[in-house]
């Protein structure tokens, strides 16, 4: 039983998609596709880490730091995914947040 507790691991995926720009007319072009930013939090016995909103904000800021927007550019097709991993039963866990988006430029 102790060996099972010390070697157990599981993962849970979840996510959402948010629309950040109206792409209903043909007045834009794609500049970059599938850019991403990542953030991670660690918990011990459920304590520690960052709030979900903070993880999303950190991941988005990393994404924009690596892919700065220029004039007339915005994010589109924004997705937010979470992966929760549990180790040693529920003693140690991590939450990884990945934000992906496309960059579009309006004419």
Write out the strand line-up for the largest beta sheet, numbering strands in chain order.
1-3-4-2
The beta-strand count equals: 4
Q: Main β-sheet: number of strands, strand sense, barrel status?
A: 4 strands, antiparallel
Residues in β-strands, percent: over 45%
The residue ranges in which pLDDT falls below 50 over 5 or more consecutive positions are: 1-5
- Assembly type: single chain
Broad shape: elongated
Number of helices: 2
Helix content: 10-25%
Radius of gyration: 18 Å
- How many domains would you count in the coordinates? 1
> If you average the pLDDT, what whole number results?
86
Helix/strand/pairing category: alpha+beta
| Distance linking N and C termini | 64 Å
**Order of SSEs:** HEEHEE
Topology summary:
Elements: H1 2-7, E1 9-18, E2 28-44, H2 52-66, E3 73-87, E4 92-106
Antiparallel strand pairs: 1-3, 2-4, 3-4
């Amino acid at each position: 039983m102790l060996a099972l507790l010390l070697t157990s691991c599981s993962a849970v995926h979840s996510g959402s998609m948010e629309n950040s720009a109206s792409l209903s007319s043909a007045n834009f072009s794609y500049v970059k596709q599938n850019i991403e930013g990542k953030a991670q939090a660690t918990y011990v016995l459920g304590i520690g880490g960052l709030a979900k909103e903070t993880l999303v904000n950190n991941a988005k800021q990393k994404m924009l730091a690596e892919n700065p927007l220029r004039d007339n550019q915005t994010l589109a097709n924004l997705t937010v995914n979470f992966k929760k991993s549990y180790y040693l039963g529920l003693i140690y866990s991590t939450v990884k947040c990945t934000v992906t988006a496309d960059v579009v430029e309006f004419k």
